[in-house]
Amino acid sequence: MSRTLVLCRHGQSDWNLKNLFTGWRDPGLTEKGIAEARVAGQRVKALGLRFDVAFTSVLSRAQETTRLMLEEVGQPALQAICDQALNERDYGELSGLNKDEARAKFGEEQVHIWRRSYDVPPPGGESLKDTAARVLPYYIHRILPEPMKNQTVLVGAHGNSLRALIMAMEGLTGDEIVKRELDTGVPIVYELNQDTTIASKRELRA
């Protein structure tokens, strides 16, 4: 019986390339990002996986990555369910700033605290704790029931919304999860036990 959950951070976006805080802003994928999404789909296909349902955010970089992955798997007609609960962390006043510019404006230590603390939000934005507060109810009530029905599920989202999911799934602390780096376009395949705990985990890298 398959209780499979595949998480994938979107491919490189234009603002990733420019080293800008993105959050809820909506830049598209770069050519590299498109290629990363296609390779992610190819790696999933190589495992023989086919999806019963897919979820993504309302932001185009995640939607496009999810669409390209499904195309590569051979399921272009599968429509992903979009919800802003899976959106990236909102960076507030940092959104659109180059990370070096932000350090010059607010100070390196302060920017580091905003980026790497669990519960300190930037001005007008969300902390990772705030992000988890909207992601986790959606995961518990909408996403998790699908693999528990022996479905194979794809979640194409963002670094911080996926960190919130991984924190819950792997039982990590706030300090542990802020240290976890998620590369663009690298699928993580979880097999779940009947009690929703993790039976196995595999990152699909080159």
Task: Give structural notes.
It is a single chain. The chain has one domain: Phosphoglycerate mutase-like (Rossmann fold, 3-Layer(aba) Sandwich), CATH 3.40.50.1240. Helix content is 40%, strand content 14%. It has helices spanning 14-17, 31-46, 60-73, 99-106, 108-116, 128-143, 159-170, 174-177; strands at 4-9, 53-56, 81-82, 152-157, 188-192, 198-203. The chain has a six-stranded mixed beta sheet. Helix 6 (128-143) packs across helix 7 (159-170). The chain starts with a strand and ends with a strand. The model has no long low-confidence stretch (mean pLDDT 96).
Give a summary of the structure in a few sentences.
This protein has 206 residues and is α/β, with parallel strands linked by helices. It has eight helices and six strands, in the order βααβαβαααβααββ.
Helices and strands in order:
Layout: E1 4-9, H1 14-17, H2 31-46, E2 53-56, H3 60-73, E3 81-82, H4 99-106, H5 108-116, H6 128-143, E4 152-157, H7 159-170, H8 174-177, E5 188-192, E6 198-203
Parallel strand pairs: 1-4, 2-3, 2-4
Antiparallel strand pairs: 1-5, 5-6
Helix pairs in contact: 2-3, 4-5, 6-7
Question: How many helices does DSSP assign?
Answer: 8
Overall mean confidence score, pLDDT: 96
Instruction: Specify Rg, calculated over alpha carbons.
Output: 16 Å
From the 3D coordinates, which CATH architecture would you assign? 3-Layer(aba) Sandwich
How would you name the CATH homologous superfamily? Phosphoglycerate mutase-like
Category by helix and strand content: alpha/beta
The CATH topology assignment is Rossmann fold
Which sequence of SSEs, written as H and E, runs from N to C? EHHEHEHHHEHHEE
Question: Helical amount among residues, as a percent range?
Answer: 40-55%
Q: Strand count, sense and closure of the main sheet?
A: 6 strands, mixed
The backbone outline, from C-alpha atoms, is globular
